[in-house]
Amino acid sequence: MHASRSAVRARLAVCAVLVLLASLPSLAGAQAVPQGQNFALIERGRYLTALADCAACHDDPVSRRPFAGGRPIQTPFGKLVAPNITPDTSSGIGSWSDAQFDAAVRFGRLPGGARLYPAMPYLYYSRMSRSDTQAIRAYLATVAPVNHAIVSNQLPFPFKIRALMHVWDALFFHPAPWQNRADRSAAWNRGAWIVEGPGHCEACHTPKGWLAEDQHARALQGYVTQGWFAPDITPNEQRGLGSWSVEDIEQFLQRGHNRLAAAAGPMGEEVADSSSQMRSDDLLAIAMYLKAPIAAGNAGAGQASRSPLPADDARMRAGAAIYHDVCSACHGLDGRGTPYLFPDLTIDAAVSARDPTSLLRVALIGTRSVATDPEPTAPAMPGFRWQLSDGQIAAVLTYIRNTWGHAAEPVSIDQVTVMRAQLQRVSTSAE
Amino acid sequence: MANTLPARDVVIVGLGWTGSILANELTDAGLSVMAIERGPWRDAPTDFPPNAAQDELRYRVRHELFLQPAQTTFTFRNKMSQTALPIRSWGAFMPPNGVGGGGVHWNAETWRFLPSDFVARTHLTQRYGARFLPADMTIQDWGVTYEELEPYYDRFEYLCGTSGTAGNLRGQIQPGGNPFEGPRSRPYPTPAQEQPFSHTLFAEAARKLGYRPFPQPSGNLSQAYTNPLGVRMGPCTYCGFCEWFGCANYSKASPQTTLLPVLVRKANFSARTECEVTRINTDAAGQHATGVTFVDSAGVEWEQPAQLVILAAYTIFNVQLLMLSGIGRRYDPVSNTGVIGRNFTHQTISDVLSFFDPAKFIFNPFIASGAIGMCIDEFNGDNFDHGPHGFVGGGYMGQVQTNGRPIESTPVPPGTPSWGAQWKQAVRDNYQSALQPGTGVHGSMYSYRDVYLDLDPTYRDRFARPLVRITMDFHDNEIKQNRFLTDKFAEIFMAMGARQVEKQYRKAPYSITDYQTTHLCGGAIMGADPHTSALNRYLQSWDVPNLFVMGASAFPQNAGYNPTGTLAALAYWSADAIRTRYMKNPGPLVHA
């Protein structure tokens, strides 16, 4: 009696172990190779995951657990929350097949056929190949599974109806296999593929239409997102990266700092999570492409060149005085700053950007630049909203946008007032 | 019953200069390090934004960056026959608090001690005979030499980007530098800061009198600098808000601007702030440290076990923790036995105010930095023959006026009423044309048998632990030294063309309310003999070999310089011994 009861218990235990094993993603038949074994595939996937900056949205912002999801993404239509993409079988993607994973990443389709919203940058990821997504999948299968259930779709009606995305995809999403251009070098083609594909630079830097679709004619000419202006990164001399060398761009992406500027805000996160992890040859390829893009209309950018405001303009006179009092200690009387520490306002692309959102934000609540291994300092700029009035901030920004060769639109007092009110509603922790 | 945390290789008590240096060196060596800091986390751009921080009332007058006596304090008396009373508002010195420690609020005067300072007793005895020293003077050799420390001075200066003019490069005297300094292996990492008008005038007058003036070595940088760890610093703007303040221009060397950005990125480094260590724990035999006990801000007691304990708190707190943990024998001045609390010293500071013709001199005193200044070293250490003068020791002196801040920069000629319309008029008349160097005469204080630290029999802290009792007075040797130096100093201001000078001699008794410097030294000193020192030459406890004690508490006596360069050099020297010798073979590095 006694013996047979323990035999039953042993058999039950064996069954339980088998059930457990069967539920593990590595044995569920989803992978073509046993988990953790195909080093080359997993390593390629790890690198592609960094290139594609999956961590930017999918890392848990509270617990910092990699890929556990939970980051809110504010869109013009409402809030989405990045899902959990760890191999957890219930709350993550552990039970997905490789084909389901590929369909989501490259085609915006959820298992069962529902559509993703384009906050997931499948538009750009579609330029990757099936073998690329398979590698990413192999890597993601090795990260720690986290049980963290997420409600992704927190959009208001009617946007919360995923079926609407059928229409959107039909209008704006035309996936096609990536084609290298035969008349360009291998490095240029590599750069083009990273920028337009996994790097999804256009998600922030390309202006959007009414339905948040990319305006391809103005690719990479800058766009306001997440309360920052992602600047013009075309080779435009006045607004873009015209005065940046290939090496300046490579250093900025790799270190978060170069002799002219520093990465902060969402770009700081991009540097920390993605481009600082990239190989130098890939960064140089990106820089080569950005200095010589193929898209029409980029080089000239179709903007009439402006003249700077005259120095005796009342805003310029007030701005100069304020600059000398509160800015020059770090940025210098000549605006040149200190390389790698205080940005050079005479060249920094953010200064003369078409849209002053980032300047307003930084002047009002300050910001801290990103720390990287080669540039650990992470210098910060203090906020001035407690110290300067809307008129004073408008004047000093107008001054720096029309000095040292800059000739950008003046900043109005109303623009400062609006931004101050917007920032009042969000965290004040940067100050 | 304490809650026990997971063990670490190393626990560091205090995250100021020495704690940060040791944390960085030991994490580089692969050890896991936990630093425990009594005060808050402090970071340059968030705690001292350049558009908000410079408030003399908040920081200087109300001591914002310092420990608050309500949290803990000391008792003080001049003589062993007196009853000590608790200090309720800081005066003679300012105990730092928080991450960065004194490195946050210092002036960044970055000196090296003289080679002869490290062998003070041997040197002075050889030159003047044993009977020249007062009978109760207890100065000692350090057990380490300048030559041994030189590479570590160099490391600290290159960490900080120190701005200065070398006076002695590998034995060759250099023009414009301090000709008395020990040989340095290479120049300062950045050139000396520019000197304002009064400082330049002082140097000219000193030169005419036959002295060899040189710029004070400064941790406020003359130009942008990238240190060997890749941390960037910016040029100083001469705003004159260094001492008592944090710097967010990234111009003043501090743990925040040189080390912490690298340290916080290391996976094997952690820190707990607002946690006060109450005890170093040892095994039953008291010969091996097992970690520390601390109390967090909620009053919860924790135990942090570790293989190696680094004590890196402020001078008196190092000594207090040793005493309360029963490590080392406590000093008894009556029987002249024991070591913990022995050879406690401070500094002998005096000033000369000088008044110039306002029609001819406009000094703009607000253009300054904390370590600005032109100095002479003719009267420091044993750079001059003490035989005719009947005292030993000395100090540098200089026009080192570091600010023209409004609350404290109100020098008025002797005889002016101390308030009212006449006082206001005198302040107005003299602000631009009077000089007030601050620590103009920066003299040594040597050690004596009856100047020491022990535990107060009456007063206790909030954990019911006895407060440390300070027994300190000036001795004739220092009073004579100060009179001689102050007179020499005043001569230079007269030679500059001052209409009137006011010599403010340092007088006995030692005052606990009159600020001198925060350079408290000794109490857990290093040396060659365990009967007269708490630590061996590597700052390792003689009694507990897995305990190392950093900081100026190791100085057997104080020299005529600011201590930070030397205590940082000692920290690097000790860290090197831990890395290259102790880690391979844990145990005593010196066998007594």
Strand and helix layout:
The complex is a heterodimer of chains A (431) and B (592).
Chain A: H1 2-23, H2 39-51, H3 54-58, E1 72-75, E2 78-81, H4 98-107, H5 122-125, H6 130-140, E3 153-154, H7 164-172, H8 186-196, H9 202-205, E4 223-225, E5 228-230, H10 246-255, H11 265-273, H12 280-291, H13 314-331, H14 357-365, E6 367-368, E7 380-381, H15 390-400, H16 413-425
Antiparallel strand pairs in A: 1-2, 2-3, 4-5, 6-7
Helix pairs in contact in A: 2-6, 4-6, 8-12, 10-12, 13-15, 14-16, 15-16
Chain B: E1 3-4, E2 8-13, H1 17-28, E3 33-36, H2 44-47, H3 56-61, E4 74-77, E5 85-86, H4 102-105, H5 120-128, H6 146-160, E6 168-169, E7 172-173, H7 197-208, E8 214-215, E9 225-226, E10 232-233, H8 255-258, H9 260-263, E11 269-272, E12 276-282, E13 289-295, E14 301-311, H10 315-324, E15 342-345, E16 348-355, E17 374-376, E18 395-399, H11 421-430, E19 434-435, E20 441-443, E21 452-460, E22 466-471, H12 476-496, E23 500-504, E24 521-523, E25 547-549, H13 564-582
Parallel strand pairs in B: 1-14, 2-3, 2-14, 3-11, 4-22, 14-25
Antiparallel strand pairs in B: 4-5, 6-7, 8-17, 9-10, 12-13, 13-14, 15-24, 16-19, 16-20, 16-23, 17-18, 18-20, 21-22
Helix pairs in contact in B: 1-13, 6-13, 7-12
Overview of the structural elements:
The complex is a heterodimer of chains A (431) and B (592). Chain A is mainly α. Chain A has 16 helices and 7 strands. Helices cover 40% and strands 5% of the residues of chain A. In chain A, a hairpin with a 2-residue loop joins strand 4 and strand 5 (228-230). The radius of gyration of chain A is 25 Å and the shape is globular. In chain B, helix 1 (17-28) runs parallel beside helix 13, helix 6 packs across helix 13 (564-582) and helix 7 packs across helix 12 (476-496). Chain B is an alpha+beta fold. In chain B, 57% of the residues are buried. The mean pLDDT of chain B is 97. Chain B has 13 helices and 25 strands. The interface between A and B is medium-sized, with 25 and 24 residues.
